[in-house]
Structure formats: structure tokens, C-alpha cells
Amino acid sequence: MGIDGAPVQYASGIARREEILDAASSLFTEVGFYGVSLRDIASRVGMSHPGLLRHFASKDAILFAVLDRHEGANPVWFEPRNTGLFAAMAGEATSPAHPAHDRFATRYLLQRTAATARFTQDAGNAVVFDITPRDEAIRVTAAWTGLQLQWLYEREAIDLVGSLNAHRAWLTGAPQEPTGETTPPPLAQAAEPQAEAVGYAPGRARRTRIIDDAVALFAAGGFYGTSLRSIADMVGISKSTLLHHFSSKEDLLIATLQRRDELFTATRPSWTDPAIDHLQNVIATARARAAHPGMTELYCVLSSEGSRPGHPAHEFFRSRYRAGRAYGTQVFTKLRDEGLLSAHLDPARESTWFFALWDGLQVQWLYDPTVLDIADQLQAHADQLLTPA
């Protein structure tokens, strides 16, 4: 006992607790909540599993303590130092099954409320567009989420501070600083899963059923929280039968992501068509995807979980984001050349912001669909970007 009667080991117990939270925070950021076990955390700290349970009763309790500590140190989200844990987990937690779902839903509500109050105060400044403070709060909050996610995939390509400053400049009618970027070449898409050797209709139907059921499970538990056994059980087949159609869980994961794109991606217009057709096509695709919440949840959960290098979907999403920005840069350049985009706007910046906005709107919508309409918000942003024809 100490002089004041307190246990001497109290300080060391607090220090040990902080070590556990440090290790858990790193692991949650590196692998995601579902990819981490209590034994993983204990091993990184260098303690036993029972020893860890003397400090925290469950993995959920550790997660909430990590979030409490992180939020206490970083109360403002619109700062680059906050990128990491929250950016990687915001999409994962869109699944109602995630223990932090309600926590993030409340966090986004508070963030929108604070941002709305801030934009209401700034309404007297020289803002050149008729944007309600609430809508601007929704869009900036969404774009910041999407920017952070893209930054986790390509830190050298995404300028977080520059993007925010460029958006502020746009709001006040000031010229943007150009990025100096050239249109990046799209990376090669992830290889498609090997086609089934026997192409009979029953086999194709079984393969489609497996993918459809895997969508629901991957959306709820992510890649690491979903087993092949659970997918096989949902389909009503054996694990060995499932592996006849897909050689691995990684193979099935990529097939589910490709199916989502195939089902809800409209055919792009020709480059001989007006640029506005391309932009409207993107918004129409967003509207079609929003009609299928399960597919949107799949995308948000896996794009966040896949932001960690080494995840089987990492290269798929990295390629997808790069290709999307390249396409958007071409579209906004064409809009500028056709006189529909102000000359002082930078196409590369606008492309990055637009696709980040789309990603972030999907995340907020999954937490509370009553707050916004994804396609309507994208359309309103596009309308404000374009100059009268």
C-alpha cells in the first residue's frame, strides 16, 4: 500500500491499460475491428489473455475506450491528424451489426449540427452560391469522410488540406490553386475470378446464389468477420461444394464486388457525346445503387476494411479509386473545354472532391437514410459547379 493507502501498483495498472489501448488502436487501424482478436491485442502488449481481461471485459469495451480516448484528444474531425482510425472504421460501422454503429451515427449527427451552426455564422461572408448551411454541412462532412478514405489508399495522390482549401476558395469565388496533376493512368483491375469449368445453368445459378448470400454476410461482418462455413450454411450447401465454385474466400470477395459494379453501373456515354451526359450518367448510377442498401453497405464496409494494405480487396479498391479519379478528371476537363465549368476550377481537384463526396454521402445515408438523398445531393453540387450554357 502507498502512503495514502492506495495500492502501489495503481499507476502501473493505468500505464498497462494505456498500453492495451495503444495496441488495440494500432490493430484496429491496421486490420479493422473484425480482424482483431483479444489474443492479438494481448500478444502485441506482451501479456496473457486472462491478464488483458482483468483490464477490459470484452473487445467491444476496448473499442469504446479507444474511441473515447481518440475523440477526447481530437474533438474536431476536419483535421488531417484525425485521419486513420476513424476514417478506416466509419465505413465498417455502417453495418447495424457493428458495435460502434450507434456511436458513429451519433458522431455524424453532432458533426453535421456543429458544421451547420458554423456555416450559418459564415452566411454573411462572400459566399457566391445559394447553399443552405445544412446542405453545405452534409456535403463537407461527406467529402471529408471520402477524402480520408481515398487518402488511406493513395496518400501521395490525395491532398487533404489542399482539397479543403480549394473548396473554401470555390465557395467564395476565389481561384483555386491548380494541383499540377496530369490525368493518372488507371491501374489494372483486379483479376476476375476463374470462371466455372462447367457452364450448365444449375451451376451458374448456384454460383449466383452464393454471391448474393455472400453480399449480405460480407456487408454485416466484413471479410475477416465472415467465414466460408457461414456462407455455405446460408446457401444450404457444404463448404466443399462452395469451394467447387470459388477457390477461396478471397476469390468470392472479389466476385461480390464485381457483381455489384456489373449490376449497378450504367454504360458510359461515348466521348463524342457532351460532357454533361457523362456527369448525369454518374449521378444516375448513384441513384440506382441507393435503391439497393445491401449493396451500398457492402461497398462501404469493404472499402473501409480494404483500406489496410494486405487486405484482399485493397488493390481492387485502389485501382477503382484511381480509375474513377482519372475518368472524373477527363469529364471535368471536357466540361471546362465546352464552357460549362469555370476556367478557374481545377478538373483534377473537382474530380477528387466529387467522388469523395459520393463515398461520404453513402456512409451518412447508411447511418440515417432520412437525412439526405445521395443522388439529389450530388445533383445539387453538380448544378452549382456548372456555369450556364
Give a description of the structure:
There is one protein chain. The chain is mainly alpha-helical. The protein has 3 domains: 1-73, Arc Repressor Mutant, subunit A (Orthogonal Bundle), CATH 1.10.10.60; 90-196 and 218-226 and 256-389, no CATH class; 201-217 and 227-255, Arc Repressor Mutant, subunit A, CATH 1.10.10. It has 17 helices and no strands. It has helices spanning 10-31, 38-45, 49-53, 59-73, 85-90, 101-121, 133-153, 160-172, 201-221, 228-235, 239-245, 249-264, 275-290, 293-305, 314-337, 347-367, 374-385. The longest helix is centred in the C-terminal third of the chain and has 24 residues, at 314-337.
N-C termini distance? 80 Å
Nearest-integer average pLDDT: 84
Shape designation:
globular
- DSSP summary, beta strand count: 0
Please outline the major beta sheet. Answer: none
User: Which stretches of 5+ consecutive residues score pLDDT under 50?
Assistant: 1-9, 182-198
Helix percent reads 55-70%
Class derived from helix and strand content: mainly alpha
The number of domains is 3
Number of helical elements: 17
H/E element order: HHHHHHHHHHHHHHHHH
Radius of gyration: 23 Å
Strand % is under 5%
